[in-house]
Amino acid sequence: PSLVFALVIRFKMQVQLDPKDPLSVAVRVCASLAHVDVTFAESGEAQPLKAILAKLGEAQAAQQTGLFGANDAEKKEVEALLDSHHKELYPPIAAKDTKKAAQLLHKLNKNILLQVFIAGNHLTVADVVYYVTLHPIVSAWNDRERNIDQNITRWFDHVQHQPEIRQSKDALPLVAINVDVPVEEKKKPAAPAPAEGKPEKAGEAKGAKQEPKGKQAPEAPKKDEAGPSSGEASEGKGKGKGKGQQPDQPAKGKGKPAAAAAAPKADEGEPLGALDVSRLEIRVGRIIKCDRHPDPEVKALYVEEIDVGEEKPRQVVSGLANFIPLEEMQGHRVALLCNLKPSKLRGVMSHAMVLAASNADHTQVELVQPPEGAAPGERIFVQGYAGGFEKVIKKETLEEVLKDLRSDEQTPPQATYKGVALMTSKGP
Predict the structure, then answer these.
(1) Which terminus of the chain has fewer Cβ atoms in its 10 Å neighbourhood, N or C?
(2) Which range, 98-102, 110-114, 259-263, is most confident?
């Protein structure tokens, strides 16, 4: 066999930027990834960061690794994120306008809810620039603040542990992040006191509790009836074996279930319950066909056809190709989040989301698996949480529910919501 030698050519580049500028660290790290030796000239007018990065992007290593985007669509996405950083996010952070910066960070937190990297499916210059910019902020956050913007915290911790970042001589210090922060319960507002001086209605006992005018008291749940639920586990929360996407530990429907509870009757037509797991329409599905994404440059995505008890199977795009072999996907039982807004992922429409669970550093991912015998289309539920699901789930609702979805420490682990197992008619 012949030997192939890879020659890495290092380029040299001088930039007009104060080496004490906070963003000079981003330039150094990006230059290291692009195999470019940079020197800083302090005199003269400073070059815009965007212009410096564009020059770095011309390096051979940057083009080969996809640092600035692996294809045209990714390059546009990276460029848009850098524009947003330079024009919107960085100015208030540099000016220490904490109120404006907090608003923009909350917006970023929502935008990366379902993403592992900030653009595409691998580390790009956008991740590096945002990581360097947010490093002092995340370092200063306490556990509660990190939990509020938990998507940023998850993404930041993932990026800071990337081998490419850690191997750079200009890498920033690791920020210790506690992934097992207890979630604060939201206090329910106290019921308004009854108005004084109102005459009692006929047939009402004096001192009896009255419902506000125009509203009826919700019907008490029937005995042994359970509420509906979801099946996703939020990442970094939970222990034991798992594999890494955005949720946390897997729930497999194997082993001995306790008594299988009756599936709840709550559906879209019923009144919405409290802001909890019942708002999510999670159903049992079965993958009847799974292929790789039709774009050969998109390596991380599968396109599945999933039977969820409807007239036609749903087409779903999932970022599982780097974690689960194609042959294992075929015929697999899955938990499917069905009330997400349909969206295009790399040009292919996706009409739901396959729920998976990951370990804390997102290096391993496993599917959340309903038990054998659970019929496609059956709704997954959690005892004690009743109510109809939202027709299209809001991002804010999904974020709130994900805080309490995690796996337990059983073998195999089971997905739970606030410690209560997700259930089907055939068990957890």
Answers:
(1) N
(2) 98-102
* pLDDT at residue 217, rounded to an integer: 36
How many Å separate Cα 69 from the centre of its chain? 21
Tokens for 287, please give them.
């993958």
Backbone angles phi, psi at 302, to 5 degrees: -105, 155
- List, in order, residues 6 or more apart from 131 with CB less than 8 Å away: 156, 159, 160, 165, 172
Please say whether the beta carbons of 406 and 246 come within 8 A.
no
Q: Residues 173-181: what's their mean pLDDT?
A: 77
Q: Kindly report the pTM of this predicted structure.
A: 0.48
394 DSSP assignment: -
Q: How many CA atoms lie within 13 A of 428 on its CB side?
A: 24
Nearest CA-CA partner of 136 in 172, 103, 168, 167: 172
The DSSP 8-state label assigned to residue 121 in this structure reads T
Task: Report which DSSP code applies to 212.
Answer: P
- Whether residue 264 is preceded by a cis peptide bond, meaning omega within 30 degrees of 0, is no
Q: What is the pLDDT of residue 239?
A: 35
Are the C-beta atoms of residues 340 and 368 closer than 8 Å to each other?
Answer: no
Segment 174-177 long-range contacts (CB within 8 Å, at least 24 positions apart): 175/135, 175/138, 175/139, 177/138, 177/146, 177/153
pLDDT digits (tens, 9 = 90+) for 222-250: 333 333 333 333 333 333 333 333 333 33
DSSP-assigned letters across all residues of 188-209:
PPPPPPPPTTPPPPTTPPTT--
The two three-digit tokens of residue 410, written as one number: 């059983």
Over the stretch 303-343, which tens digit does the pLDDT of each residue have?
Answer: 999 999 999 999 999 989 989 999 999 999 999 999 988 98
Helix (H) or strand (E) holding 365: strand 365-367
337 contacts 351 by C-beta, under 8 angstroms: no
Question: How would you class 270 by CB atoms within 10 Å of its CB: exposed for 0-12, middle for 13-18, buried for 19 or more?
Answer: middle
In the chain, the percentage of residues whose pLDDT exceeds 90 is: 23
